[in-house]
Amino acid sequence: MNKGKVYLIGAGPGDVELLTLKAVRALGEADVVLIDDLVNREVLQFTKTNARVIEVGKRGGCRSTPQAFIERKMVQLAVEGLTVARVKGGDPYVFGRGGEEVETLTRAGIVVEVVNGITAGLGVPAALGIPVTHREFCRGVTFVTGHTAKSGDEPNWHALAHSGTTLVIYMGLNNLASIVAGLRGAGMRASMPVAVVQNGTLPTQRIVVSQLDHVVADVAREGLASPALVVVGEVVKFAGSKVLQEPARQRA
Ligand code: SAH
After folding, report:
1. Alpha helix locations (H) across 7-138?
2. In what order do the strands lie in the sheet with 32-35?
3. Cis peptide bond prior to 227, omega within 30° of 0
4. Which of 8, 38, 144 best tests ligand 1's pocket when mutated (most atoms within 8 Å of CB)?
5. Per-residue pLDDT at 130 exceeds 50
6. 58 tagged catalytic
7. What domains sit in the chain, N to C, each tagged with a CATH number?
8. Which residues contact residue 203 at a Cβ distance below 8 angstroms, ignoring those fewer than 6 apart?
9. pLDDT tens, position by position, 194-230
10. Mean pLDDT across the chain
11. Which of 170, 194, 207, 224 to mutate to test the pocket of ligand 1 (most atoms within 8 A of CB)?
């Protein structure tokens, strides 16, 4: 049988100009586009006019499409001989279940190509002028999920607090209080700079720049909501000092 192909495409953090050329090319080849709810709909301008678009939202707590259904759907479409573009926010391999999907697809004998995207952990701090590494202030950057912080599956707070790296925490907003408590309990200083960014790189971007012992109250007062990224580290002091990327809203 003439099987189709699946592209797992990372759409970047939001601003459509952060798509790669490879993503644009793959979108243009697709017969069917499965689009995640974190993805800016402006990416659809690069699809064929007759491409079928399927919304596959998986946002926690909202309308959701089970992962197994999405995977079955991709296999079914590819077996029909179609070229499928599965479009995800950021990078497919960074908290994006890309690994699981590649496994399922290859097990079914489907050809898969992964197209990198700019992960939120890089693109969002850059939109604020925060360099995630800076040799005067840190020895690296750690990408970590804040999602499991409540469930008994506690991260190693001591290792994180003393890593000497910038901490970039995905899915951390709902557990922000326990993240702060974990880092403080492990000895991170109360005045450590923290930024929380909602809808980074988009016109709806909202930012709270604070410090460890005030950030929970500041975020509550400002009413920030998901999707939001939490950045902890000395480099946060660069926020707003020099905006290296022009936000999408200023071009419009
Ligand atoms: N694969 C994606 C991450 C998916 S997990 C990537 O590489 O970026 C979803 C989490 O990513 C959100 O809860 C949030 O923490 C973060 N995120 C994604 N886009 C974001 C944006 N535009 N602004 C802030 N955080 C974002």
Report:
1. 21-29, 67-79, 98-107, 120-128
2. 52-55, 32-35, 83-88, 5-10, 111-115
3. yes
4. 38
5. yes
6. yes
7. 5-115 (3.40.1010.10), 120-238 (3.30.950.10)
8. 247, 248, 249, 252
9. 999 999 999 999 999 999 999 999 999 999 999 999 9
10. 92
11. 170
Atom number, ligand 1, closest to the C-alpha of residue 92: 1
Q: Which residue has the tokens 């604020």?
A: 128
CB 232 within 8 Å of CB 196: no
Q: Which of 31, 74, 171, 192 is catalytic?
A: 171
135 in Cβ contact with 29 (< 8 Å): no
Q: How far is the CA of 53 from the centre of ligand 1 (A)?
A: 22
3-state secondary structure of 182: helix
Asked whether the beta carbons of 106 and 73 are under 8 A apart, the reply is no
With a 6 Å cutoff on the Cβ, whether 38 touches ligand 1 is yes
